[in-house]
Amino acid sequence: MNVILESLGDPIWQIGGGIILLAALVLILVLRSPEVHLAPRHQWFLTRLTGLLCLSFFLVLSAGVLLFHGANAASTTAPAVTRPSSATASPHGGLSHTPVPSPSPTPFPSLTPSPAQVLTTFCDAINQQDLNTAWGQYAKALQRERTALPAPSTRITIVHCRVDRVSDKSATGFLLLKTIGPYGYTDDYERPFQLTLSEEAGAWKIAQIARCLADGCLDDTTSVVP
Questions:
Q1: Sign of CA dihedral 167, 170, 171, 175
Q2: Same domain, 142 and 44
Q3: What predicted TM-score, i.e. pTM, was given to this entire model?
């Protein structure tokens, strides 16, 4: 029923049908006009031929529109998804089907200190200018940057930190950082940074630092240093 209603409301069907009907009326009026000199037998034959042709065009148009909407309705109907089941032997013979349980999600690692504690420790170390502790919160791969700092043209040095959004159940947190940009540029503004932690040797360590802008966060790990 919905397919039929959609077909009736289709502008192509409405306009095409109107054109066919108007053409049929015009042709019939022309054939029966006194200005067209036709024998009554020819006039009768051509009138009915015109009606049959117009009716055929109308039926073809209607069938095309109906098939088009029917195909669209069939393609948007999603097949029912069935959960697989396992077959077990029944005590009375035959097989009985029991649903297979869905796998449980992997629990979030419970490590001490937690992600929130690591990021808070990092922030406190920045504000106290305790670089050893700040660098100690980094993953080992990033700690190597301490011996080979980024070039002055790209280096962003953290001078102040404030905790924004952190959680013990998420490996991602947000800190508000004041930084000194390339060649010593500073404007004393706090900007949001997204820090991602990873598990390393049974502890959470900072693995990525991304600078957040209006349209998303951009990886700046290799440029941002304590």
A1: negative
A2: no
A3: 0.51
